[in-house]
Amino acid sequence: MAESTAGDGYQLRRDFTGSTRLNCQHYLWQQELRFNLHPSIPTPVPGNAIADVATGTGVWLLEVAREHPGVNCLGLDISTAQAPPKQWLPSNVDFTTWSIFEEPPAALRRKFDVVHIRLVCLVTVDGPSSMIGNIAMLLKPNGYLQWEELDLSRSVVVVATTDASIKPVAIPRMDTIMKARSQRSLIPKLGEMLCENGFQSVKRYHFEPRMEVMKFHTKMHVLAWAEAAFNMPEGSQLKKEISQLLAEVQEEANQGICHGAAKVVFVAQRGGQVAG
Q1: How many other CB atoms sit within 10 Å of the CB of residue 230?
Q2: Tens of pLDDT, residues 143-192
Q3: CA pair distance 226, 104, nearest whole angstrom
Q4: Residue ranges of the alpha helices (H) in the chain?
Q5: Burial of residue 213 (number of CB atoms within 10 Å: 0-12, 13-18, 19+)
Q6: Model pTM?
């Protein structure tokens, strides 16, 4: 049975489909980013601590823990249902529950040298800016934040086929809806808001979509949309529209029409004198 998560603000699902999509999504992002920790962040040394916020299945955290076996790695999420059992974890990995919409407990404050977060702006409804301040509390003074999102202002619809009779309709419609949701999120003003919350040296890096994996990304977007539709109220107009649209998007993808969006990575450093 699919697990609804509508009650805790998460817009997708935590069942087999949701977990598999998250793991697939991680490896597709790796294809384009080519790193787990951004090269501008100093290489962690033994004794450092890294937190992965909204960790999901923990797949990013487990890779970082393997790359840096002397570093303590903690996955944080409102639910740890998708993470591996504690008995199977490496000695330098653990998971615990915490919501980014609440201030962290004292035991987590100023504890981490690096905090990583990915794709929270599009799956939270009009996410409050308070979550930036809450995330900042996790970092040691001068610690680093790496925040990754889709930049849908630079999304594209690409047609590979030369068949003039094939006209993209559903995928452009999907792109329009995604862009509208993106404009309501924190993404367009995230860099500015990081500065307002005491972060310094805020850098924004763009990674354009690669054509050879664009079809994979399109189908992954379909999975995410199906999860989002599951949590929408029965009978809602948007749920009906998305359900109909998904079948058409899949058909267009099979015809050589795909959707791609740039990845944007923010790297910022917490100020040395920030309270919290």
Answers
A1: 20
A2: 999 999 988 888 888 888 777 778 888 888 888 877 776 666 677 788 99
A3: 32
A4: 16-33, 59-67, 130-136, 170-184, 190-196, 214-231, 237-254
A5: middle
A6: 0.87
